[in-house]
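Appendix B. Extra example for self-study. Work through it before the problem class; the solution is given directly after the inputs so you can check yourself.
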Amino acid sequence: MADFFQAIDQFPVTLKHWLMTQLGGVLPEWAEPLVSAALSITPILAVFPLMFALTTVIERKGLGRIQNRIGPNRVGIPLTNIRLAGFGQFIADGIKSLIKEDVVPRAADKVVHFLAPIALLIPVLLTYSVLPFGRNMVPLDLPQTGLLFFFAVGASTELSVFMAGWSSRNKYSLLGAMRAIAQMVSYEIPLILSALTVVMMAGTLSLSGIVERQMWHVAMPGIPGDQDGLLARWFLFTPWGLVGFFLFLTAAAAEANRTPFDLPEAESEIIAGYFTEYSGFKFAIFFLAEYLGLFAMCGLGITLFLGGWLPPVNFAPFTWIPSWCWFLGKLSALIVLFIWLRGTLPRLRTDQLMGFAWKFLLPMTLINLVVAALWHLLANSIPLVARWPLCFAMLAVPYWLLGRGFEAKFTKREYRFAN
Amino acid sequence: MLGTGILKGMVETAKNFAGSYHDPERLTTVEYPEQRIASKENARQFPFLVHDTEDPMKGLRCVACQICEKECPPQCIYIVKSKDKRADYKGQMQFYPATFDIDLSVCMSCQICVEVCPFESIKMDTEFELSNTDRFGGLLVNKHQLAKSNEHYRKIHPTEAAASDAVLAAETAKAQAKAKADAEAKAAKAAAAAGPVGAVASAPAPKPSSPAAATAAAPAA
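Solution. Structure tokens for the complete assembly:
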């Protein structure tokens, strides 16, 4: 029984291995690493863009329901009455954007304008190469630099966003690009600092190494869950991990330009921000890259705090589910959370955005680093039941103190002339 | 505390999300082509010409006075007056529109044509599905397409239609009363004129005074 589930779990790995051995005799020696890489990349290029396509429909349906509307439910199979509850929409959208006219402004810097969407999509896809999607399923395992690679490549999206805004020769594009630069640079710091806490505690930059540190059978001082226990040792279950996860999610939403941090493309203010002057498939690439960036950020959050591909508990029905299903399930849950947030929160103002990054997120991540260090140092002197509330209180008090400045101060408005 | 407002908001949206599935009362929209919301009584979209009789072209109330054409702010009405006259609902002889076109693409649904019409002959319709596959000819609506019965008007705007009917009834009654008064006055005048000649006319039969009436009476006599 366990072997059967093990086989399903490792099916993608064994399939690739089998294909490589079959091709081994046929292929010239120099082509083998290329084919191996292509075989690793193919599932990523198949799964995540498909997930993006489905997310666009689910997001529209979810936002509709949040606003007490029905949402898109028409497009199904053409020339039939089969509607598929509207899930044919993304195919229609894809065809539409492919056959739409590609308008390039006459004043635009044409080369840069053409390169910007490509320069955005490629780094976003590169970040997927270091994410562990399942047990033994990481396309490029960098044992020394995995997380560093993710952030280094992910940071270059700022350049492509500015390329798009600058080359369009449009004031709205440029405003959007300026906003994007300011926002991404500000939020990169809390994002990296909150991830740094995990690196400090796990003692490795390798993302698959970080997932292994959250396994139940790996002895780690200072993480709840006993040696052969039932509960997994996700970093989320520690006070610094809990706070760190939410700090990470906030910064990730800002990095991915998601509501409430969607100032760079604030459509009620600056049309579509940096991709105002893009149409047709270039626009679709921007859209795709934005969502793939969000998925990659969510994937990193899952790897760092939610135990990657590990099930939450270590007993039978949960361990039977393949590891990659756990990863995709957690990813879907986070996507739903982001859609929910988008349906709930209005957009921030620029000064609120900057103030939140520098006056709240940055101090909180620094405090979180110190608390994580204390958690580690006190591991042998204070029992877990006392250590957990102590460390949590050390984070909750600064949270309350720092948060006071950001609370909305509502007073009853006096309408002098109307009354 | 920071974040409680966000949580409250998320609870609210979650309620909406779940509620929209089991409580159809919450839904603010309908699935349009299949389901339709009955239009509001005060809705207005595009003008139509009211007619009273079975044959729309014979019963048009419009007398081609061209006030609406002159008042129309975007100048979307085009009227050609007829050469001949015909009797209107009061029996009065009037012109009628030989051509009455409204450009659908220019009309801005302002209802000024309705406000200025002294004959209760142009009213606003609630029909809103006006798209057309012919963007030149199809958007120029002629009098055959514009003519709609008074029953239709009563159906879409009951209150307004009742007021309009009352105005017309009053006009008709006034016209009839005037005709009657005129006839009586004429009769009295005729009697007065006849007085000196036949002073003993104790039972004055009203003499036909108009030549038309005389010719009409002659064959009968």
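Self-check: The first strand of chain B starts at residue 46 and ends at 51. If your reasoning did not lead you there, revisit section 3.
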